[in-house]
Specification:
Elements lengths: L1 H13 L7 H9 L18 H15 L4 H11 L17 H25 L8 H16 L1
Helix pairs in contact: 2-3
Length: about 140
């Protein structure tokens, strides 16, 4: 299961964005950048003038051929104090934000599987003559009593 999950994560992280129109690229990038003046809204969703300005800048940069990552980095650098990226970068140290929770869930599931297996397993215990004599003594003591 862990191998399948790792394969899907690898494919998802390295998958090419495919052929998208410039407008689709602008929208996709705008959805990953937080509005600098709104609370909890992306640049895509916000109607604020600051968000419109950022969408216009994204469109200009898409038209010049910059990659999505370059455009996000540009916006992030321009508003460094505000931390506008809604989605952390998927490269380098920042990729740990994506990988560590998955690893934790897989390890936790594996630990639970091992624990449940141990709890279900009945240990091989043989009854000895001494055990039988203890049971017989107990029966005789309580039958008379």
């Amino acid at each position: 299961m862990a191998v399948v999950l790792a394969a899907f994560l690898t494919i998802g992280a390295t998958r090419a964005s495919g052929a998208r129109s410039n407008a689709e690229r602008v929208d996709a990038i705008a959805k990953t950048i937080k509005c600098p003046v709104c609370r909890s809204e992306s640049v895509f969703d916000s109607k604020a003038q600051a968000s419109q300005n950022i969408r216009d800048e994204i469109a200009r940069q898409v038209a010049t051929g910059r990659t999505d990552g370059e455009i996000r980095a540009y916006v992030n650098d321009r508003f460094k104090d505000q931390g506008l990226l809604l989605v952390p970068p998927k490269t380098g140290i920042d990729s740990l934000v994506w990988v560590l929770p998955v690893v934790a869930v897989v390890l936790a599931a594996g630990g639970l599987a091992v624990a449940f297996h141990r709890w279900r397993t009945v240990p091989d215990v043989a009854v000895t003559d001494e055990d039988r004599s203890i049971v017989e003594r107990y029966r005789h003591e309580h039958e008379d009593g």
